[in-house]
Amino acid sequence: MIVARRAVKTTLGPNMENRNEIPLGDQFAAAMDWWRDAGVDYEFSDEIVPLLADEADAEHARPTAPAEVKTEEKPPEPKVKSADLPGDLAAFRDWWVGPDNPFANGHAARIAPIGKEGAPLMVITAMPEIEDRDSLLSGPQGRLVGNVLRAMGLDPNLAYFASALPCHTTLPDWDQLAADGLGSAIIHHVTLAKPQRVLLFGSKLPAVLGHDPAAPPESFSAIADTATLATFAPDRLLDHARQRARLWKRLCQWTAAQ
Fold it and tell me: What is the number of other CB atoms lying within 10 angstroms of the CB of residue 174?
């Protein structure tokens, strides 16, 4: 209820209802008078602005915000660049298990790739199995991958085996690893190994290699111009028979198209 110092005239109609006959401008002036008498003459917010002062005074009193300086933040430099990596396969494999590889986290064993240059198939898994010590994919995941290759009519001993990470890692941050240059290291590895085809185990790996994260990983089709089929990591395939069946169907289509 607004109490004003100015006179207020009301009339009582037939229904005994009050009807305000004060013009809107007088009502507003009366309200301002009431707030001034109450001692409230400023609007309080993050910036103090005079509510009842003259317009010129208000503009003078209003603090001027400093102009925003927009600077473009450059993304941090990746830890690994392809140009800095060893230029031959043997030296790259030594670097992969050596102390200069920034992608080896934790205390798990670093496992070297195995196979010969120019193999008919290069198998890349997300990381070594937790049981791996001397060779890559030495546990149940390796048995699954070996069975997949035999079903394709390929001797596993003729394949080249590698991993995206040099050691088993708990909950790897794939986005950060991609920013650090892991994708460049994988592509460089494929370029040096020169396989005829690549079988990529790990649904996160296509995005690390530059594939659109919004696109299905199965649409990923090449690494360094080498035909590639991407699928789930071996541990997921072991737990899901439906995914194994789906992989087999895709493998049949993939090999028939080559």
Answer: 20
**216-226 mean pLDDT:** 90
- Same domain for 134 and 89? yes
- Amino acid 201 reads F
Question: How high is the pLDDT of residue 9?
Answer: 46
Is residue 132 in a domain?
yes
3, two tokens: 């109490």
d(CA 198, CA 222): 8
Distances (CA, A) of 222 to 19, 54, 176, 188, 252: 81, 71, 22, 13, 17
Adjacent-strand bridge partners of 190: none
| pTM reported for the whole predicted model | 0.70
Asked if the structure places residue 77 within a domain, the reply is no
Question: How would DSSP label each residue in 188-205?
Answer: HHHHHH--S-EEEE-TTH
Q: How far is it, in rounded angstroms, from Cα 234 to Cα 140?
A: 9
Q: What is d(CA 175, CA 232) in angstroms, rounded to the nearest whole number?
A: 17
Whether the CB-CB separation of 141 and 238 falls below 8 Å is answered with yes
* Whole-number Å distance between alpha carbons of 33 and 218: 72
Same domain, yes or no, for 98 and 182?
Answer: yes
Please tell me whether residue 49 adopts helix, strand or coil conformation.
Answer: strand
Note the pLDDT tens digit of each residue in 119-176: 999 999 999 999 998 899 999 999 999 999 999 999 999 999 999 999 999 999 999 9
